[in-house]
């Protein structure tokens, strides 16, 4: 695989197919030539404001064409972009992000004003793109080991942690099979996810490096789902779409949370369906598998190219086939680590004793096991293991039983206290009594929830995952049911 910065690959696409549509949003379009030119203009402004290779630029925007221009311009200036959704970003979070990344420049939009702290420079993308002045096309020396983006993940203490992901990390997934998802010139890729979620980088950069057309959604995902060839989503988002109303879809990839088998089967009957796994720290996903409806089981597949997976016990020894252990990820997927957090780096990253040569591996906290045919079966996360009445319960195993009920599309199971579980299912037509009977028939008595609550739809976070914190508030009577 060629090791080159991603923006150089995109510029080469612009030179090869300048008239091809690169991005579309609500009827507005940019060709590859126009996208490249506008990104050059904005990159020149960033450099003029003192942005240098290896630095970070905060991108606080809403979904649209300027968002894509801002990403590409930041990369062309040699910096890593730090994406945040302007509609939901809180001032305290922005201050934390700017302090952690030491970003001096914030890219904004005129129709989504952002209060930027003193000492930082705000640049309105819309205003720069409206200019007609001459500019010097930026020429920046960069290596694939430079940062591509910095994503902030939820910390256990409530403080988000910034993860540095390099060009080489991202290219290793996007420019190899199956992570390229078959995207080629003429392929229409949906952009439906929050920009602060790493799956959005798969949508945006994965489309542009292969010369596809990025179709950015408005408020309703369904408005564009019927027009795209490739969808990347969380299972929670995908469950809101009807495959029968998406006749153009050829490829679907899901990640971010466990996928229910019925959902995978439903989509795998009409398209190439990929189930993936991997946190931000190992670059979007580090395992993938195309699923077939007649498969014995739904797995997360095998490591993506140039990556390794180790299933280790508590003493960091490899587990035998069939034994459950924690997934540690090695290879080219392993990101550059957390910004300004050496303690967390020491806890989650470690020298890779299997690859050696100074390589690192990352503790994903996913519970997995090798199947006899060499695939990985996902069995939840270490932080989803709870003690109920002194017994260890994997919450995802309870949810999996519920999601196999006829008519149930999504489920979530939560711990209320040391003796009580509670579950939620969608849609509201699911029979709670039948749900409880199904769990009692398949799992030990201590896995049976005190109640199963049907909802029209499970609430989702801004990143498209089940909002378990809100469900817990509902279960405790402190949150309204949507």
Which oligomeric state applies?
A: single chain
Q: What's the end-to-end separation, in Å?
A: 47 Å
Order of strands, widest sheet: 11-12-13-14-15
Q: Count the E strands.
A: 26
State Rg: 22 Å
* Main beta-sheet annotation: 5 strands, mixed
CATH architecture label of the largest domain: 3-Layer(aba) Sandwich
Number of contiguous helices: 14
Domain AMP-dependent synthetase/ligase: 11-339
Protein name: Amino acid adenylation domain-containing protein
GO molecular function, one term: phosphopantetheine binding
InterPro entries: AA_adenyl_dom, AMP-bd_C_sf, AMP-dep_synth/lig_dom, ANL_N_sf
Brief digest:
The chain is α/β, with parallel strands linked by helices.
Task: Tell me what you see in this structure.
This protein has helices spanning 6-16, 32-48, 65-76, 91-101, 125-129, 167-174, 198-208, 222-225, 235-238, 261-268, 342-348, 395-403, 432-442, 468-475, and strands at residues 21-25, 28-31, 56-61, 80-85, 105-108, 121-124, 147-153, 161-166, 188-191, 213-216, 230-233, 251-254, 272-277, 287-291, 302-303, 307-312, 325-331, 337-338, 349-351, 360-370, 376-381, 385-388, 391-394, 410-417, 420-426, 451-454. It has three domains: 6-218, ANL, N-terminal domain (Rossmann fold), CATH 3.40.50.12780; 253-381, Roll (Luciferase, domain 3), CATH 2.30.38; 389-475, GMP Synthetase, Chain A, domain 3, CATH 3.30.300. The chain has a five-stranded mixed sheet with strand order 11-12-13-14-15, sandwiched between helices. It has 14 helices and 26 strands. Helix content is 26%, strand content 28%. It is of the alpha/beta class and 482 residues long. GO terms for molecular function: phosphopantetheine binding. Pfam families: AMP-binding. Residues 11-339 form the AMP-dependent synthetase/ligase domain. It comes from Crossiella cryophila. This is Amino acid adenylation domain-containing protein.
């Amino acid at each position: 695989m060629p090791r080159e910065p991603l923006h150089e690959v995109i510029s080469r696409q612009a030179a090869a197919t300048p008239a091809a549509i690169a991005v579309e949003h609500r009827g507005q379009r940019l060709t590859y030539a126009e996208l490249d030119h506008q990104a050059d203009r904005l990159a020149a402004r960033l450099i003029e404001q003192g942005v240098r290779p290896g630095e970070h630029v905060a991108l606080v925007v809403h979904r649209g064409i300027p968002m894509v221009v801002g990403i590409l311009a930041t990369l062309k200036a040699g910096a890593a972009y730090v994406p945040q959704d302007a509609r939901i970003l809180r001032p305290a979070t922005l201050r934390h992000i700017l302090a952690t990344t030491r970003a001096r420049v914030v890219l904004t939009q005129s129709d989504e004003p952002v209060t930027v702290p003193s000492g930082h420079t705000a640049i309105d993308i819309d205003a720069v793109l409206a200019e007609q002045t001459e500019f010097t096309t930026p020429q920046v020396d960069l290596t694939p080991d430079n940062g591509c983006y910095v994503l902030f993940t939820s910390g256990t203490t409530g403080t988000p942690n910034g993860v540095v992901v390099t060009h080489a990390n991202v290219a290793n997934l996007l420019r190899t099979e199956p992570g390229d998802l078959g995207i080629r010139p003429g392929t229409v890729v949906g952009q439906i996810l929050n920009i602060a979620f790493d799956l959005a980088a798969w949508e945006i950069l994965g489309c542009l490096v292969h010369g596809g057309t990025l179709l950015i959604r408005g408020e309703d995902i369904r408005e564009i789902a019927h027009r795209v060839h490739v969808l990347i989503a969380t299972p929670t988002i995908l469950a809101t779409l009807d495959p029968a109303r998406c006749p153009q879809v050829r490829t679907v990839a899901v990640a971010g949370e466990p996928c229910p088998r019925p959902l995978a089967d439903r989509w795998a009957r009409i398209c190439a369906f990929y189930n993936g796994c991997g946190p931000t720290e190992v670059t979007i996903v580090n395992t993938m598998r195309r699923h077939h409806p007649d498969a014995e089981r739904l797995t997360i597949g095998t490591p993506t190219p140039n990556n390794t997976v180790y299933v280790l016990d508590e003493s960091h020894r490899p587990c035998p086939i069939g034994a459950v252990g924690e997934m540690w990820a090695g290879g080219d997927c392993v990101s550059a680590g957390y910004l300004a957090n050496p303690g967390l780096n020491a806890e989650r990253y470690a020298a890779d004793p299997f690859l050696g040569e100074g390589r690192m591996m990352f503790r994903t906290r996913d519970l997995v096991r090798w199947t006899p045919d060499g695939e990985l079966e996902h069995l939840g996360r270490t932080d989803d293991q709870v003690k109920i009445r002194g017994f260890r319960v994997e919450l995802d195993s309870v949810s999996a039983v519920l999601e196999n009920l006829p008519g149930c599309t999504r489920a979530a199971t939560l711990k209320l206290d040391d003796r009580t579980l509670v579950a939620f299912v969608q849609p509201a037509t699911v029979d709670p009594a039948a749900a409880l009977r199904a769990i009692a028939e398949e799992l030990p008595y201590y896995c049976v929830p005190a109640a199963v609550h049907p909802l029209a739809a499970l609430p989702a976070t801004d990143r498209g995952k089940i909002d378990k914190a809100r469900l817990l508030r509902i279960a405790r009577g402190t949150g309204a049911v949507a």
